[in-house]
TrEMBL record:
Signal among keywords: no
Cross-referenced SUPFAM superfamilies: Cytochrome c oxidase subunit III-like
Gene Ontology molecular function terms on file: cytochrome-c oxidase activity
The protein, known as: Cytochrome c oxidase subunit 3
């Protein structure tokens, strides 16, 4: 007779998605090489479409495990929270590398940049134009996502859904303004170390805003399907934590790169 040991942890079933995601990431990297060498985007787009498909079906499985199979109990949720905190911490150090590089060159500019910062010939952005507007937009989105959190805690489903909708719309508005800013720039990524650091830091932040907006869109769709309750909504909490991280990074970018750096 076999004795079954009951334990509170979630033992994940065998899934094909990690292997397929790894394969698609490899295709994306090979596609980037093909873009750099032959300016052909077909392989890269194929990998991106495959990765997008895997993200959708993998998240579907996680939602199914959480909502319908009851696998995410309090102990599992605590592990998910620790994992999300560690992920955001890794992202913090990712952006620290950009700020480190920026301050290294700006506080002690060498002869290669004309011993001046910003380098001679660089026409920087007016920090009180689009950058300030984007700051207001992200701060407003931080308020709306916090209000959404308070709404779900109070079981106000309509207010929760509306606040989530407003948050990701503000995120897309931010991205549209940043794209306009890039097209109106008087320098590009190849214009000395200033252009490299500026577009790497703000560009990766824009990518994180895009990921956060997609994250919030997914949570909004789930909210419209009434898949959250006042006691079980960690998916939304993870998205809110990530969005607040994006807000804080932008405040550092605005104050150091746009305002102080100009």
């Amino acid at each position: 007779m076999v004795n079954k040991v009951f334990q509170p942890y979630h033992i994940v079933n065998i899934s094909p998605w990690p292997l397929i995601v790894s394969f698609n990431v490899m295709v994306i990297v090979l596609g980037l090489i093909n873009v750099f060498v032959a300016s052909q985007w077909t392989l890269w787009f194929t990998g991106m479409l495959g990765l997008l498909f895997c993200v959708v079906v993998w998240w579907r499985d996680v939602i199914r495990e959480s909502m319908f199979q009851g696998c995410h109990n309090s102990l599992v949720l605590s592990g998910l929270m620790v994992g999300m905190v560690l992920f955001i911490l890794s992202e913090v150090f990712f952006f620290i590398s950009f700020f480190w590089s920026y301050f290294h060159f700006s506080l002690s500019p060498g002869m290669e940049v004309g011993a001046n910062w910003p380098p001679t010939g660089v026409s920087t952005f007016n920090p009180f134009g689009i950058p300030l507007l984007n700051t207001i937009i992200l701060l407003a989105s931080g308020v709306s996502v916090t209000y959404a959190h308070q709404s779900i805690l109070s079981s106000k489903t309509y207010t929760f859904s509306f606040s989530l909708l407003l948050t990701w719309i503000l995120g897309l508005y931010f991205l549209s303004l940043q794209m306009f800013e890039y097209f109106s720039a008087f320098f590009d990524m190849s214009f000395s170390v200033y252009g490299s650091v500026f577009f790497m830091a703000t560009g990766f932040h824009g990518f994180h805003v895009l990921v956060g907006s997609l994250f919030l869109m997914t949570m909004w769709v789930r909210a419209m399907k009434l898949q959250f309750s006042s006691t079980h909504h960690f998916g939304f909490e993870a998205a809110a934590w990530y969005w607040h991280f994006v807000d804080v990074v932008w405040l550092f970018l605005f104050s150091s790169v746009y305002w102080w750096g100009s």
